[in-house]
Amino acid sequence: MDDMKPDISPRYYIAETTIWLLGAIIAISRFVGLAPFQSLPVLNVTLRSQQHSFRVVAAMLAAATFYLIFEWKQSPQEARNSYWAQSRAGITIIFSCVSLWLSYPFIAANTRFAGISPAWYFSFCSIGFLLGLFGSTLALSSIMIRTPAEARAINLPRMPTATRSQYMLSIPIISILIVAYYLLCYKAPEVMIGQAYFFVAVPFVYLIGAMFTSLCLKRDDDGNRIPYGKSIASLKKSFDLHDYSYYLIDHGQTIAGKYDIRSNESPEEIQRAMQEEFCLEASSSMRFHVKQLEEFQIEFYSKDGNSNNNTPENRGIRIHKSQGKKGFLRVQVISDEPENESREMDIPAALVVTYAEKYLLAHTENEDLTTRKVFSYAINQTVIHTMEQELEPLLQRVVLAGQTDQVEDLLNQDVDVNEQTAIGWTALLAAAAQGYPQIVQLLLDAGANTDIGNLKGITPLIYGARYGNIEVSKLLLEYGANPNLQDTYGMTALMIATRYGFSDIVEMLLKAGANTKIKDHDAMTAIDFAHKYKHGKIAKMLRTANQRQDRP
């Protein structure tokens, strides 16, 4: 029984049937009419007037509609995701609303609301619904704004891209809705003015409350409540991934434009162009001089508080300044090479102090030592350290440059072969994307993890499949790469190789156990890609493998 497809709650179908029955009664009564003291169809209820019958049936219809929505929410998520179930529920609710609209003139008869068009109620409710929808979205996006510490830790701006987009979209719309509300109040019948606030407030408060309730009362697959902080952290992670995706796209487009790499070229041509542009000899030196842009004072002190203790280890330095950014020194880095532009940068004052103290400790017997010389060295070293922090790890830089000897030297120095950049790249990912089999072999022998992907989930094997690099793909599979890992779009190496028509790699992946039935986010399998891009030979291979995987 566990493998049965989940269905909507049985009570939902009872509510649905009731809605259609009551709606039909209203339609018959509205257009055909019922004589006084005639019993209502099916219900076997006799009322004194047709007006009373409309009010009773309309009340029952409204109650059934709310109950239907409640039961819909209680039904399994998998059943609600069905297109047929969603269409059926939507049509039923629309039918209920139309039936209530038709019955309104009789419901409001002989009351102060007689003659008031239902369009006024609909207009105010719509404004409340839209204010709640955009307001809750804006509130959630605002919660996603990063603290200064979070932004520094992940190297992203404080304002997520999605939040900025929501501000640009939602704030003007909310302003227009507020203006529309006051215009409607100005034009509405006098009897509606006192009720308008209620019809706007109810859907608005409901949607805002539903958003915060979903955060505070969200449950996992086992039915356990997920703490509010954990829910927020999970959402922030998705916002971070969204921002990194934009960064990767923009960064890729910038590089492609800079090196004239066209996206419509074949994968082999793209990889060849990348190799030609990045396989360069790295500069052996950094020639520059630094100009201070801020004045600061230097204070020497004894670390243990004993001024008579003159040992080198006891000498400490403090930097004081009254201008500029606290904790940083503003300097101008001027390159000694004319083709390179100078730049201004903030360097950490604490790091300058650290280098200065190290320099004093290492030159205790230097009689020519001056304060200017010490701080010139300390500032230069801090600038170099800051500039290196802006670059990718050294191992990845030499991998990108295709410098096999330097890669081997660094690996012999026991560097972290699996170190990742802010966007998740490892040296093995770079080598696979560039198509350097020899470097891939060196990294794998040094213990590189074959399955670490970047922030978009793209693994070294997916890059090998993307560019049709048989040698790289073969090495990765030999060292245990998982052929069934998916990126953030649900794509596997098999789907990628199929999409670009690399039959040799498809065959290799199938032998390594690639699953032909995995679906991407558009519910497409590798076989679907083979048909879509008209790769008949690969489609035949995949069908054969699919049949083999179906066997017990």
Outline:
By secondary structure, this protein is mainly α. It contains 22 helices and five strands.
Q: Based on the coordinates given, report the CATH architecture of the largest domain.
A: Alpha Horseshoe
Q: What best-fitting shape do the alpha-carbon axes yield?
A: flat
Strand order of the largest sheet: 1-4-5
Tell me the helix content.
55-70%
Number of continuous helical runs:
22
Main CATH class of the largest domain: Mainly Alpha
Reported for the largest beta sheet, the result is: 3 strands, antiparallel
Query: What is the fourth-level CATH superfamily of the largest domain?
Result: Ankyrin repeat-containing domain
CATH topology of the largest domain: Serine Threonine Protein Phosphatase 5, Tetratricopeptide repeat
H/E topology pattern: HHHHHHHHHHEEEEEHHHHHHHHHHHH
What is the beta-strand fraction?
A: 5-15%
Pfam families: Ank (PF00023), Ank_2 (PF12796)
ANK repeats: 423-455, 456-488, 489-521
Protein name: Ankyrin repeat domain-containing protein
Keywords: ANK repeat, Membrane, Repeat, Transmembrane, Transmembrane helix
Account of the 3D structure:
The structure is a single chain. This protein is mostly helical and about 550 residues long. The chain has 4 domains: about 1-115; about 120-260, no CATH class; about 295-390, no CATH class; about 395-550, Serine Threonine Protein Phosphatase 5, Tetratricopeptide repeat, CATH 1.25.40. About 60% of the residues lie in helices and about 5% in strands. It has 22 helices and 5 strands. The chain has helices at about 10-30, 50-75, 75-80, 85-105, 120-145, 150-155, 160-185, 190-215, 230-260, 265-280, 350-360, 370-390, 395-400, 405-410, 425-435, 435-445, 460-465, 470-480, 495-500, 505-510, 525-530, 535-550; strands at about 290, 295-300, 315-320, 330-335, 345-350. A 3-stranded antiparallel beta sheet has the order 1-4-5. A two-stranded antiparallel ribbon has the order 2-3. A hairpin with a 7-residue loop joins β4 (about 330-335) and β5. α5 (about 120-145) runs antiparallel to α7 (about 160-185). It starts with 9 loop residues before the first helix and ends with a helix. About 25% of the residues are buried.
